[in-house]
Amino acid sequence: MMNRKKKIVVIGGGLAGLALAMKFCERNGEVTVVSYQSLKRSHSVCAQGGINAAIDAKNEGDTPEKHFYDTIKGGDFLAHQPLVRDMCYQAPAIIHLMDRMGVAFNRTGEGHLDFRRFGGTLYNRTAFAGATTGQQLVYALDEQVRRHVHDGSAKTLEWHEYLGAVLDSEGICRGAVIHDLRTDEIYTLQADAVVLATGGPGQVYARSTNSVVNTGAAATTAYLQGAKYANGEFIQIHPTAIPGQDKLRLMSESARGEGGRIWVPRDANDKRNPKKIPESERYYFLEERYPLFKNLVPRDVASREIYDIVYNQNLGVSGDPMVYLDLTHKSREFLDNRLGGIMDIYTKFTGVDPRETPMKIFPAVHYSMGGLWTDYGPDNDGLIDHGSPRNQMTSIQGLFAAGEADYQYHGANRLGANSLLSCIYTGLMMARGIMNYTDSLEKSVEDIPSTVFDDTRAHWQNRFNDIKKMDGTENPHKLHHELGDIMLANVLIVRDNKSLDKAVHEINDIETRFKDVKCLDTNDWANPSPSFINQLYCMIHLSKIITKGALMRDEFRGSHYKPDFDLHQPKDFDPHEYIDYLEQKQYGEVSQEKFPADHLTYMKRFEENNEKWLKTTVAQYKDNQPEITYEEVNTSLVTPRPRKYD
Amino acid sequence: MAKPSKDEIHYLLLKLHSLTGIVPIGAFLVVHLCVNSLRTVGVWPYQLSIDAINNLPFLLVIEITFIYIPLLFHSVMGFYVIHHAKTNVHRYRYPRNGLYTLQRLSGAVVFVFLIYHLGTTVAPKLWEGKHYFEAAPFLIDILNGEFQTWQGLLVYTIGIVSATFHFSNGLWGFCVSWGILIGENAQRNGAIVFAAIGLALTVLGMATVAEFNMNPIPVEATVAR
Amino acid sequence: MTEKNLTLKIKRQDTPGAAAYWQTFEVPHRPFANIISCLMEIQKSPTTGDGKKVCPVTWDSNCLEEVCGSCTMVINGRVRQACTALVDNLEKPITLEPMSKFPVIRDLQVNRERMFENLKKVKAWVDIDGSHDIGEGPIMTDQDRAKRYVMSECMTCGCCLEACPQFTLDNAFLGAATFNQVRLFNLHPTGEMKKEDRLNAVMGEGGIADCGNAQVCVEVCPKNIPLTESIADIGRQTTWQAIKNIFTK
């Protein structure tokens, strides 16, 4: 048995990484947090609207079980249910913990936590700190980790990049290869476990709501080293973002949670100032089409509707691909108090004050529901055994993933304000399992021959030396944008196999051209060029995973919308009919009279479709391409059924 | 009280710098300007006030304890503060940044002025041994001459304006540093009040100068030796 | 459509010890372009105005929406976030320099380690017993919350320090950002328990008494944090603390 402290390397200083680092330190472990930049700057700070927990502060009868159901339904039943349920049951404790750490959550008159509404639910379930909740949560965790650094139990390696895992002869992860982004040194860190909390891959699309570090390179490297990558094709397109050249800036769902309304002029040629257009000439299309959830339908639904309004109905504002997001009916004071952060962002980047003039917004790539395949250890109560070493472990033993980099919590579409929750939840939850995992190891990292580390280091050193020698004609940044253009044009809201097939070929072209890239900078001090080329290589492979997964999945589920395979739910269909239908089937014949004929046909097709496609997509690296297989989804707690929000 | 650490001494010295600027130096400045302004009422009351001061028992001890030592301390600390300032008002043109620079500049100016002022009044008075009732005619004679040349007028104008500015702006700085004025509005309103005080003191000082300039009346000792 | 070009004069430096030099770049001028998108254009075609092929300019940035604090630089002589610096609102030609109060790493990148070290000095955290579930946090009025919230938006970007005439490359001044953190945590019911530690930490060389009240910090803060209020409040708290230290220690 080991006499020393257990040591892990956490890659990434966002919510998941910091939460884990904090918890592991508390459990007397030793943590090294590796971050691409200074802590406090991770992409988690961009999260705006809030974090969900069914505390039922407004006496609406909300419960964690309802939160669980909403999340599963929002994700079109593709998420593993015990995990999601456990997360939802842990959520209230997580909010209270963050509150104890000093997060400036908005409060009620009595001084308790205030909650607001968010998409995909009818309850006020979202705790928030103005409109910069992510920033506030990151800071709170960062402060706790800084405290552990101050006390000596945690260490941070900022301005260091993760290049890959060190795998021993049995394929067990024994450490990480790290690249010092300033001195350009490449070296290895020994660890009992390595955790990738490296966030999402938005940069594959070049323009998204993601930060510039969100290349998905770390997760892709794991995939290239043999780890499974799951549900890659499920990319969330956020319905409301501010169009821009370098970035599409998020306009939080909380804008609608606080009463924001989406509309377009009924007349496409209406060029009037939006404030001059009378109510009767405005088309509040989400409210009309979804009278129950109105503007707070889940994101996949809202994005599709906006897409439909702009491209099928040609009703975009002034003929441009934009719709109005209107908050001008709310008072300035109210907006500043509850949405100040996003009001400022809009004003700063467009020069227009959204308190006076409706915002112009359009959907943008936002989040990856997919990510590294990770395991979990269910208990007997439909929850998770927090001590299970399987929790959050990738298919490479000893390599774990957490936060947006994993795939388990959001199914085919994530509900707003669930990402902050899943990040913190995974980080906190997995600590004990990792402790137990290190106990279970037969061989300790000290017993691994040093050649394993030396060889891996040499491999990456050679790789970077080779990159620096690349002297072709292609500019890597231009190539990156071309890759992004391909993805934006073909693998976005509305997908069809012809375009996807075209995209597969175009990505292969990009891959060929990648060989002719020029390394723009060969210095060995603070040189970002070789790293970027390596990241671009990863992004090309990740785009293949996403595109191939999308091409092969012939159905419509959550964010993955293929109109050719839409089952066309009848307008008057009630999802409960499907439960009756299944029940009747279980106890014998389905009565033909009980259901309208079109409903019956629909339900049969729905059932068949689920049998075929209610599966996790698993991509594995083989012959330079992703090999796609499918795995069962754990639906042991709620019966999958058609989604409906109107 | 435990032996203070280097950091504690640093803090206390700076606080003391700030405090001495108000009491006793600032207070003395106010008294000095007010008493001198008696000159505008007439030379007789002015002379009486000088007589009163110069007949104080242990005058030199009082002056050294309550004026010269605090002044020296305030000046030394002031130059320490100036030494650590890297003014950037040319880049960041904000009123408060301008005042920050002027505060340091005026401090240095007042320091030079005081050397001149003391060197031409108190020093010769002590050197020549003009005490008690002899001090007033001696000093008034010097000042009568001082304010007849444009150089003298210029030096005193600069000196007085610098001193009143340094004091009134310093008063504001004191109130912020010691946490008396905290909120944005409080700080702004405080600045207005202190500006008014500064202006009043300047008027007082300059009126005295003007009176000296226009009516240089020589005086005899109130009581002969 | 022909695009108008935009000229950027950029102060560059290859390594920390090396001499700085200026280079001029031309990039296409697009509507709503910001400084970051211009720098991205330079990456795509790293050629100076006079046709010399050079290494792309390096800079720090991440979120591009002014919440991460990475992309602070001196633009036209004034410190600010590059992402919100829209070129249409800037005087031309545009000059870009790294911050002058922090050691340059390379080009527009600087080392802001000092700011993060200061957070440790003042214990800028709430000392919780642990992350296990021990129930609700302390009750707090929404007014107090709102006061803390504006302060807690500080993203450690360094603008307030770059613009501060008291803060230099080699002195010990803690600066507005740090004082603001002291106030932030002293205002929290649990954080308050370590109030004395924090106050004593800012009562030394480079501490609160070194502030010269030039108040440029509050003018350049991209998050509009009432830094001068924080400074004055910490002034008050330390004054009481000093009196307490003198008479009770």
Provide structural commentary.
The complex is a heterotrimer of chains A (646), B (225) and C (249). By secondary structure, chain A is α+β, with helices and mostly antiparallel strands. Helices cover 37% and strands 16% of the residues of chain A. Chain A has helices spanning 15-26, 64-74, 81-100, 133-151, 217-224, 254-257, 285-289, 299-312, 332-350, 419-440, 450-469, 476-490, 497-514, 529-552, 575-586, 597-613; strands at residues 7-11, 30-35, 51-52, 115-117, 124-127, 154-158, 160-167, 173-180, 186-190, 193-196, 229-230, 235-242, 249-250, 261-265, 282-283, 323-326, 359-368, 371-372, 399-401, 615-622, 625-632. Chain A is globular. The relative contact order of chain A is 0.15. Chain B is built from nine helices and no strands. In chain B, helix 1 crosses helix 4 and helix 3 crosses helix 7. The radius of gyration of chain B is 19 Å and the shape is globular. Chain C is elongated, with a radius of gyration of 21 Å. Helix content of chain C is 32%, strand content 13%. In chain C, the strands form two sheets. In chain C, strands 2-1-5-3-4 form a five-stranded mixed β-sheet, covered by helices on one side. In chain C, strands 6-7 form a two-stranded antiparallel ribbon. Chain C folds into two domains: 5-110, Ubiquitin-like (UB roll) (Roll), CATH 3.10.20; 113-248, Fumarate Reductase Iron-sulfur Protein, Chain B, domain 2 (Orthogonal Bundle), CATH 1.10.1060.10. At the A-C interface, helix 1, helix 3, helix 4, strand 13 and helix 9 of A face helix 1, helix 2 and helix 3 of C.
Main attributes of the structure:
heterotrimer; B: mainly alpha; globular; C: 249 residues; alpha+beta; Ubiquitin-like (UB roll); Fumarate Reductase Iron-sulfur Protein, Chain B, domain 2; two-stranded antiparallel sheet; 8 helices
List the helices and strands and how they pair.
The complex is a heterotrimer of chains A (646), B (225) and C (249).
Chain A (H helix, E strand, L loop, with lengths): L6 E5 L3 H12 L3 E6 L15 E2 L11 H11 L6 H20 L14 E3 L6 E4 L5 H19 L2 E5 L1 E8 L5 E8 L5 E5 L2 E4 L20 H8 L4 E2 L4 E8 L6 E2 L3 H4 L3 E5 L16 E2 L1 H5 L9 H14 L10 E4 L5 H19 L8 E10 L2 E2 L26 E3 L17 H22 L9 H20 L6 H15 L6 H18 L14 H24 L22 H12 L10 H17 L1 E8 L2 E8 L14
Parallel strand pairs in A: 1-2, 1-10, 2-6, 10-19
Antiparallel strand pairs in A: 3-5, 4-5, 7-8, 8-9, 11-18, 11-20, 12-13, 12-17, 14-15, 14-16, 16-17, 20-21
Helix pairs in contact in A: 1-4, 1-10, 2-3, 3-10, 5-14, 12-13, 12-14, 13-14
Chain B lengths: L5 H31 L1 H4 L1 H12 L4 H25 L11 H26 L1 H6 L7 H12 L3 H28 L6 H31 L11
Helix pairs in contact in B: 1-4, 1-8, 1-9, 3-7, 4-5, 5-8, 8-9
Chain C lengths: L4 E8 L8 E8 L6 H10 L27 E4 L2 E4 L12 E4 L6 E3 L2 E2 L2 H9 L20 H11 L6 H4 L13 H11 L8 H7 L14 H5 L6 H22 L1
Parallel strand pairs in C: 1-5
Antiparallel strand pairs in C: 1-2, 3-4, 3-5, 6-7
